Amino acid sequence: MNKLTDIRAAQGQFPAPIGGEGEPGQGQSIDLNRLIATFRRRLPLFLGVALIVIVAVIIFTIQSTPLYTATSSLMINTRESTVVDATAVLSGLSGDTGVVDTEIEILKSRQLAERVVDTLNLEDDPEFNPALSPPGLVASVVGGIAQLFGAAAPDAARAQLSAVEAQKEKERVVDNVLSRLSVRRAGLTYVMNVGFTSDNPAKAARIANTFAERYLLEQLESKFDATRQANTWLNTRLGELRTEVQQAEAAVEQYRTANNLLSASGATLTEQEISTYNQQLATVRASQAEAEARLRTARSQLAAGSNGEDVGEALGSQVVQQLRARRAEVSGRVADLTSRYGPRHPDMLRAERELADIDGQIQAEIRRIISNLEAQVQVARERTGSMAGSLGSARGTLAANNAAGVRLNELQRNAESVRTLYQSFLDRFKETTASEGIEDSDARIVSPAAIPTSASSPNVSLNLALGIVLGLGAGMAAVVLASMLDTGLVTGEDIERHFGLPHLGSVPLLASVAEPEDREDLPADYVVKKPLSSFAESVRALRASILYSRIGHAVQVITLTSALPGEGKTTSALCLARVAAQGGMRVILVDCDLRRRNVNRLLGVEPKVGLVEVLNRSATLEDAMMLDEISGAQILPLAADSFTPKDVFATPAMDQLLAYLRGSFDLVILDTAPVLAVSDTRHLAAKSDAVVFLARWKKTPEKAIASSLQLLDQSGAHVAGVALTQVDMKAQSRYGYGDAGYYYADYKKYYAA
């Protein structure tokens, strides 16, 4: 029993070997001849699909309405003109790629398209408004019937459209206009080409130019609106800031007054007062020092023994000077009297008393002067103390003012910031007011659209080339799809690649190898009639493959089966029996298909007893067997009414029968029912030396074959291989690369007619 590993591979358990060679997972190079053969096999499909596509493209091109494309060129201005020295509210456009792409999207926007539709009244153009297109024959008949029954005419119905329906209609018009619009950048330049396609060349040029003009106008309007809105906002903001400035300045003055922070010439009154006090204090201190110095000098002179006449204030005193003058005069008279009268003379004594009186007056005056100096020093000291007290009081007031000045500085800074902001807004307002009305668009029309003279669509050469490419692509896709959907087996290599089983042979379709006069013959009769034909040789090749399928083990009992009905099992079994009998073998064909009994149909017999009766012991084997007179093979048919629900093939009687047949015949052929339809076949397959699995060429699905082989493997049967039946040798010779039938045209002449 062989292990059907590649059957499981076909069911997705693990990859199957490619081409039946190597271990799973080993890749092989692409076989170009195989691809060519596959393509040749599907050549009619390829040509048919390609031709259909090409013809469809040609018909579409012929029936297409000629369309004309007009193009207007716009360029973004990267240089700005400066009329006034002011920054614009809405800045100009740069030449960046992102900016150019953004402007292209603006040109393709719905808002701009709606403006163009409104400007040119495109809602009333049937080309863009299908509702206005002339009705066809059916629509005309329906409209006439509607009018007969009182329905509104199309124009009246359009007039009765609601606002929502009118808006939807306009949206459809805008969609149609946008579908005809194309905006592209010219390379990496700042030029944008605005193209529009229409069935009317003049209309195409007019709409393209309108798109360009409305785009420029929209730029200007956006700048005008931005400047106007900026001026309005600035004016409102200036009013608010003006009030804020007044409030901030009033707060400063109120706080200054409340905290006695009045100032003049840049300094507060307290600061000015302190400055004055400082100056006066310095003056009185100097006066005090001077008075103290005079007093101290006078005292030091008196302490040194002076009579006070050399004291500075005494020297400057008029009284002292007069007394000194009188003393000098009296001293002169005393001296004169002394020389004249002597010391006791009354005049002399009177003169001496007068001189002493003068000296007393002088000393009294000097004491008064000293007392005056002391009084001056005391006054100077008191004045200095008073001035110092006033200065200290002023400094205390200044300290309080400085503490209040912190809040004043905050109020002043706030007022200054509001004043600065107000001034900046005022300057900006003046700039925007000056620039209003002189804005310029950021683009210009380089080349207006001209009326096209030739149609841009359909492009016959392009459509034809495209049709050929699409046709070839569709044809190839159809070939690939058909190959993917084709689950049948074509060549022996397919068998080995998908199932890992040998290809035992291919039984041709008789009509593909026989002469015209023999094509109506039955294949079983043809092998006898033309034993040297290619058909008979294919059956002999199948027999040889079966007999040598198990080296070292004699193959006597073989089971012919398939996955589905109608795959040529009975025909192949009868042909195999007759060819083996012609070769001198003792052969018996046993009909084991209890439901169909196709052997009886091919031989044209209705036996009374058969296999079932032999197994039931109601008839002998000799009575049930029939001789095929034209070939010499023995036939064990089924009686016409031999159907039984019993599982007769799993009984010991069947085992005994097969044992007897092994001893009596060289080859025992069991014609069984399909594996997927009936379970009887699995019992017989397990009792056979080899199972020949038949698959109809290009018809039997691979999944059905894989499932059948899996069932046979589970029953313990030895599947010798797979044989293809009803093979069209003419088709196989054209594209059956990888199979012996591919060379049928070369060796068919070898056979005798």
Q: Could you characterize the architecture of this molecule?
A:
Helix 5 crosses helix 8, helix 12 runs antiparallel to helix 13 and helix 17 (523-529) packs parallel to helix 19. This protein is an alpha/beta fold. Strand 2 (181-185) and strand 3 (191-198) form a beta hairpin. The protein has an 8-stranded mixed sheet with strand order 7-14-13-8-12-9-11-10, with helices on both faces. The protein has a 4-stranded antiparallel sheet with strand order 2-3-1-6. The longest helix has 90 residues, at 346-435. The chain has 27 helices and 14 strands. The protein starts with a helix and ends in a 6-residue tail after the last helix.
CA(first)-CA(last) distance: 41 Å
User: What is the 3D shape?
Assistant: elongated
- Write down how many β-strands occur, each being a DSSP E stretch of 2 or more residues: 14
How much beta, percentage-wise?
Answer: 5-15%
Helix content: 55-70%
* SS-derived structural category: alpha/beta
Indicate the mean pLDDT: 79
> Order of strands in the sheet with the most strands?
7-14-13-8-12-9-11-10
Largest sheet: 8 strands, mixed
Q: Which parts are unreliable, with pLDDT below 50 for 5 consecutive residues or more? A: 1-27, 82-86, 88-92
Radius of gyration: 67 Å
Count the DSSP helices.
27
